[in-house]
């Protein structure tokens, strides 16, 4: 996980430069996105300990267990997701999308939503 600069400012991305999102419906570090939601917004999962890259803050990284037994990466307590509508690194097509009961936002390096 790292930070990159784009049209929304500095945002969190995975190691391949794909944008990561938070879901406002999530409560704490518990994901509320499953089924059809997880198809449109795939969770950012890991099999090991997540690593902070350039600009990301290691102490804000964590994990949470999903109901299917996989481990989802969290940042500042937010479960992280991709957006199926992003086709290449740097895309932010999921920003402010209102689906599955709440809005989705990219994250700043401090782990707060970018509301632009």
Notes on the protein architecture:
The chain has 1 helix and 9 strands. It is mainly beta. The strands form 3 sheets. Strands 4, 5, 6 and 7 form a 4-stranded antiparallel sheet that branches. Strands 3-9-8 form a 3-stranded antiparallel sheet, with no helix packed on it. A hairpin with a 2-residue loop joins strand 6 (71-75) and strand 7 (78-79). The mean pLDDT is 96.
Note the topology.
Layout: E1 2-6, E2 9-13, E3 21-23, H1 36-40, E4 45-46, E5 61-65, E6 71-75, E7 78-79, E8 98-99, E9 102-106
Antiparallel strand pairs: 1-2, 3-9, 4-6, 5-6, 6-7, 8-9
DSSP strand tally: 9
Overall outline: globular
Count of alpha and pi helical runs: 1
Give Rg in angstroms. 13 Å
Low-confidence stretches: none
Protein structure class: mainly beta
Strand fraction: 25-35%
Task: Give the biggest beta sheet.
Answer: 4 strands, antiparallel
Percent helix range: under 10%
Mean pLDDT: 96
Give the CA-CA distance, first to last residue: 22 Å
Element-level helix/strand string: EEEHEEEEEE
């Amino acid at each position: 996980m790292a930070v990159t600069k784009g049209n929304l400012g500095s945002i969190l991305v995975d190691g391949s430069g794909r944008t990561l999102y938070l879901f406002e419906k999530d409560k704490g570090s518990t994901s509320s996105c499953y089924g059809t939601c997880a198809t449109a917004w795939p969770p950012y999962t890991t099999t090991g300990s997540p690593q902070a890259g350039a600009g990301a803050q290691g102490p804000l990284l964590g994990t949470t267990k999903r109901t299917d037994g996989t481990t989802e990466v969290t940042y500042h307590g937010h479960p992280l997701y991709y957006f199926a509508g992003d086709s290449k690194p740097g895309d932010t097509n999921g920003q402010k999308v209102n689906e599955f009961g709440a809005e989705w936002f990219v994250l700043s390096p401090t782990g707060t939503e970018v509301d632009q």
